[in-house]
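Quick bug: Organic cation transporter-like protein 2 output formatted oddly.
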Amino acid sequence: MSAMNAKAISEGEEEASGMRNETLVESGHSGAVRRRQVILVAYLIAALDLTFLFMQFGIMPYLAKSLGLDSVGFGYLQTTFGVLQLVGGYIFGRFADRFGARAALILSCSSGSVFFLLMSISTNIPLLFLSRLPTVFMHGLPGAQKVVTDVTTPSQRADALGKLGLCFGIGIIAGSVLGGVLSSKFGIYVPTYVGLVGSLINTLIAIAWIPLQTKPKSDHQETEHSNLFSIREILRLMKFPGVKEVFIVKVFAGLPIGLFMIMFSIISMDFFGLEAVESGYLMSYFGVLQMVVQGLVVGKLANHCTEMTLLRLSVFVFAGVGLGMALMRTVWHYCIIAVPLVFAFSMLATITDSILTKAVPSSDTGAMLGICASVQPLTRTVGPTIGGILYKRFGVSSFGYLQLIVNISLFVYLLKSKIPLKEMKSQ
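Here's what came back:
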C-alpha cells in the first residue's frame, strides 16, 4: 500500500512540475487541451520553418553558380553558415531561457524573414554572403523543442520531442520538392519570396498562439544568467549528473555518419553514379523514412523502454550500420542500410535531448537544447575537411569502419559506466 502511495505522490509531483506556469495553469481537461494545442502549434511552426529552410538548400548551389561563385567559394559560404549556426545555437537557447520560448520563436521566424529578404535581393556575391548573417538566430526546431519541453511532463517528453522529427521529414520532402518546382518553373528567386512570406506568417502564428510564458520564472534564471554567451555556464551545465557522459555519446555516435552525409552529394555522383533528379528522389526517401520512424516508432518504444535502454540500442544499431556501410557497393545497398540508419539517428537525437533537458534545472532547458542544436553545425563546420580527407584517401568504406569502431567503443562504455539518469517511461 505504501508503494502505491509513493507512486501516486511521485506522479502527482511530476504532473505538477509540467503544469506550473502562469499561462497554462488551467486545471483538468481544459488545461490538457490547451497544452496539446500549444504543442501542435509548435509542430506547425517547426514544419513550416524546415520546409522554407530546405527550399533554400535546394536552390542555393544554383543561385551561387549563377552569381559566379566557384566550388571553393561555395564551400566558404557553407562554412560561414555552419559557424553562424554553431555560435548562435547556444546563444539562442540562453535567450529562450531568459525571455521565454515565445520570444525565441518570434526571434527565429523574424530572422528567417530577414534572411529570405536578403536572399531575394542577392544579385552579387557579397550580398549572398551577407544573407547568411541572420542565420545566427534561425533556430526554429530548437525553439519548438523549447516549447514542448516547457509544457510536457518529464515522462511525456521523449514521445513529444520524437514527434518533432515528423516535422523534419515533412520539411525535407516538401522543401526539396517546392524549391525545385518553383525555381524551375518561375525563376531562381521565387522560393526566396515564398520563404519570406512564409516566415512572416510563422512569426504571426507564434505571436498569436504561443503563450507569453510557458514555464515559471525562477530567481536562479534572473540572477545567474546575465550573459547570453558564457563558457562558464556551459561548463556548469556539463557538471550536472550524467550530462557530460550523455553529451559525449550524442556528439561522437553520429559524427562518422555526419561526415558521410556532408560528402553525400559527391559520393552520390562518383560512387553511386546518380543524377541530380535521382539524388532528389533519394532525399525524399529519407524524408519518408524519417516521418515513419519519428511518427510511429520512437514514441511507442519510449512508452515501453527506459531511456538508457533506448540509448544503448541506438548506439548498437549505429555500429551495425557502420558495418553495412563498409560493405555496401550499390545505391540499393544504401537504401536498405538507410532504414536502420534513420532509426538510430532519430532515436539517438530524441533520447539524448530528452535525457539532457531532464538532467538540468528547468531554467536551463533552453541553453541545453541550444548546446544540443550546435552539434550538427559543428559537424558541418569541420566535416568538409575531415570527410574530404577520408573519402579521397580511403574511400567510402572508411566512413563505415569509423562508424563501427566509434559506436562499438561507445556501446561498451554505456554498458560499463553507471550514468545517473532519471529513468522513466512515458505514461
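Actually, after a second look the formatting is fine. Residues 31-213 form a domain with the Growth Hormone; Chain: A; fold (CATH 1.20.1250.20). Closing.
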